[in-house]
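note to self: dont lose this again. the chain is below, predicted strucutre after it. 273 aa total, dont forget to put it in the shared folder this time
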Amino acid sequence: MGSDSREAAAEGAYATIGDLASRLDVGIDAGEPAGLAVGRDLGDEELAAIRDPFACLADRHHQATIEMPLRLGRLPGKAPKAFGSLGFPRIRGRDAAALGKLPSPSNPHARKDIALMGPGGMGKAHLAQAYGHECRARGHKTHCLKAGELRDKLAKAAERGDAARALGTLVRPSCLIAGEVGRCVFDRARTDLLFDVVDRRHEREGPSTLVLTSNTPVNDWDGLFTGDDALPCALDRMFDKASAFVMRGPSFRGAGCVTLSVESVPSVTRIQR
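---
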C-alpha cells in the first residue's frame, strides 16, 4: 500500500472513531485520534484496536435506544410485528399500492394520521404495530395502547386530578397508536379529554401521526363517544389530513390451521359361551 493510500485509510479511521464517539455522546472529533496516532506512532492495527470497541459500544447503545422506548411505548418486543410477515401478495384492490408504502413512514413528518378500518382478521393491529416499530427505528417516540386502556388511563387521571400529566404522555409521542376503537364507550368526561388529546396533537410542533384501528365504521362512532360537539370536532381534526384504509376480504386468521379428520370404530363385543 502506497503512502497516499495509508494516509487516506488512517484519515478514514480517525473520522470513523470520531463518528462512533459522537453516537455514544462522547466529545471526540477526528482530530483527537489523529493526534494520538501521531504522538504514539500508532499503525493500522492499533487504530483498529481503538475503533472496534467504539463500534461495539455504539451498536449496543443504538440497540438500547430502540429497545427501551419499545418497552415504554408498549409495543410488543417479543416476536414484533413486521410488514414482511403480513402477506402483502394477498392484498388486492384499487389502492393496494398505497398500503404497500406504509413500511416507509413519512406520515409523522407530513403530519398525517392513519386509520385502518374493517372487520376482524384483516391485519389492522399487525399493520399498526409494524408501523410503530418502523417509526421507533427511525427515532420517533412511539406509544401504543388499546382504546379501552386509553379510556381507563383518562378516567384514572381525571379521578386523581392529574389529567394534564396524562394528556402530556399522549401528546408527546410522534406516533400514537390507538387500537380497537369501538370496543368500549367513552362517557362525556372521557370524550372531552380525548378531544383535548386530538386537539393538542393537531396543534403540536414537529412530527406527529395518530394511528387508529377499528372494526366499526366511522359513521357509527357517534354511539361510542358521548358529547355534543366534541366528537365531530375530534373527527374533523383526525381526518383533516389522513390516510383511511377501508379493508375488506377474507380473514387472515386461521391460515396456519390444519384440519385433521379422525373417527372412532365400534368396539367388538365378545359373546361368552
